[in-house]
Design a protein that fits this description.
heterodimer; A: alpha/beta; Rossmann fold; 2 domains; 4-stranded antiparallel β-sheet; 10 helices; disordered C terminus; B: 12 helices; about 0% strand; elongated
Chain lengths: ~270, ~250
């Protein structure tokens, strides 16, 4: 079997809480093939971000193992970091730098010399269509521009795997579609994409395969079509279910409960 | 080293773009210098006060102003901003040595410390202060002040990494005041009351202050100068080791 782009085996993360141990992730198994766009869905607090942070070397792994592009993230974190690009929730950018400066700095940190870094920054600014804003301070960027710059900064070293943690949260619909286009374009260039999202439409649009995590364990995994067909058959539905239906079924929520929760928030 | 250099350049750009964070570093120490001279200058006239060695009281007070300026480093607060904004995670997700993550900002603080201490000493010349130890003494004075600025802000970085909270980091910087006032700040150590003398003797900042003061008032008196540098080296080594350890175990 060829090396997976991302592989996790019995991944566990335990925190010490005030009331004792908290198991945020409880034995996650994943295998993502090179070239996939893989969606990782789940309600708030289900363990999505914790899983991503372990896979990206930002959190220590309590038990289990994980590899990215065949490299063990716990044993060889620096080697793994060279194989992956990371864009986390809330674009992690320095508002007091200019877009071009940020990309050049990121490229230098990945070992490029000044000339290579400048050339790579130019390429990426073109890719994410930020050439005109390249020499402006990031604090003046819109939310969509920040997201695109964050994406570009995750790509400076041409990673084999790109982790995107809720890349469109807080964006307006137009910016969201722009980010989707960028993700498709990046994937077409050969990069495997691991995407967490709360937006089911986003997963449906982008992902060839997905997993749903709830309470720290994976409760569904497959292509969107297969998951919908499986629900239709199992629940004997007389209509085609949506990914929302799959999600609600997998996480034990009902549409009425979910809508009720939303009304409460609005009220 | 190249990672430290590029991260240091970034921190210097940040400082250049926020002059409002640097100006108080110059203004407040000079304010205290002027106020302290105004309050005690007549009590300690240069002609009859032996410990002034022929200079005015401003020369005796200049080390306190330099140490005050050295306590205004911004690296720890900017680090909290990086942590809160997610940029610190971006840096941690890159194959950057954990030591470089600490040293980049400290390098920038060192450069800022040199510029600010030169400016303060230069303004001291306007008050008639002279550096009795000559050009070498001037260089040592600037280096010692800038090095202590690095050590002090590095200690605050520990608070920043541990708490990840701007308010806690800001509050921790207030530790400077007891450290500063439990020193022979206004008179030499032998003129302090016994309890204050004991407290000052136990306080490492005392040796920095005496070292700086010696560079201003005496010809190169190595016996008084070296303890200040020893404090910087020892406390600095502990600070660096603790920072790297905290970043290595940062979850």
């Amino acid at each position: 079997m060829s090396a997976a782009a991302v592989e996790a085996q019995r991944l566990v993360k335990t925190y010490k809480g005030r009331g004792g141990q908290v198991e945020a992730v409880r034995g996650v198994d994943l295998r993502i093939e090179p070239g996939e766009i893989f969606g990782f869905l789940g309600p708030n607090g289900a363990g999505k971000s914790t899983t991503v942070r372990m896979l990206t070397t930002l959190l220590t792994i309590t038990s289990g193992s994980a590899t990215v592009a065949g490299v063990d993230v716990a044993r060889e974190p620096d080697k793994a970091r060279r194989k992956m690009g990371v864009a986390l929730q809330e674009a992690g950018l320095d508002p007091r730098q200019k877009g071009r400066e940020l990309l050049v700095l990121q490229a230098r940190l990945f070992g490029m010399n000044a000339g290579e870094a400048a050339a790579r920054a130019d390429e990426l600014l073109t890719l994410v269509e930020l050439e005109d804003a390249a020499d402006r301070l990031i604090k003046g960027y819109s939310g969509g521009m920040k997201r695109r710059l964050d994406l570009a900064s995750a790509l400076v070293h041409r990673p084999e795997v790109l982790f995107l943690d809720e890349p469109t949260t807080g964006l307006d619909p137009a910016s969201r579609i722009t980010v989707w286009e960028e993700v498709r374009r990046i994937n077409q260039l050969g990069t495997t994409v691991f995407l967490t999202t709360q937006y089911l439409e986003e997963a449906d649009q982008l992902c060839g395969r997905l997993a749903i995590i709830d309470d720290g364990v994976i409760v569904r995994e497959g292509t969107p079509e297969r998951l919908k067909a499986e629900l239709r058959e199992r629940a004997a539905l007389d209509h085609d279910p949506t990914l929302d239906d799959v999600f609600l079924d997998a996480t034990g929520r009902t549409r009425a409960k979910a809508e009720g929760a939303v009304s409460e928030v609005i009220a | 080293m190249s990672q430290t250099w590029v991260l240091g350049q970034r921190a210097l750009r940040e400082a250049w773009r926020t002059p409002e964070a640097i100006l108080p570093t110059l203004f407040i120490p000079l304010f205290f210098l002027v106020v302290n001279i105004g309050q005690a200058g007549k009590i300690f006239p240069s002609t009859t006060t032996e410990f002034l060695k022929g200079q005015g009281y401003g020369a005796f007070q200049l080390p306190a102003s330099l140490l005050l300026a050295a306590s205004f480093g911004t690296a720890a607060l900017y680090l909290v901003e990086d942590i809160e904004g997610g940029y610190f995670d971006k840096l941690r997700a890159a194959p950057v040595s954990r030591a470089a993550l600490v040293l980049g900002r400290l390098f920038a603080e060192f450069v800022k410390g040199i510029v600010i201490s030169i400016a303060i000493v230069a303004l001291g010349f306007a008050f008639g202060i002279e550096i009795a130890s000559g050009p070498l003494g001037f260089v040592l004075l600037v280096l010692l002040t800038a090095s202590w600025a690095v050590v002090f802000v590095g200690l605050l970085q520990l608070i920043a990494l541990k708490t990840r909270n701007a308010a806690a980091t800001n509050s921790a910087s207030l530790i400077f005041f007891p450290l500063m006032f439990l020193t022979p700040n206004f008179v030499p150590r032998e003129l302090l009351t016994r309890p204050m003398e004991i407290a000052a003797t136990l306080n490492p900042v005392t040796y920095l202050m005496e070292s700086l003061r010696s560079l201003i008032l005496d010809d190169l008196d190595w016996a008084t100068i070296w303890p200040g540098f020893a404090v910087v080296v020892v406390v600095g080594a502990i600070m660096l080791a603790a920072n790297v350890r905290l970043i290595n175990h940062y979850d």
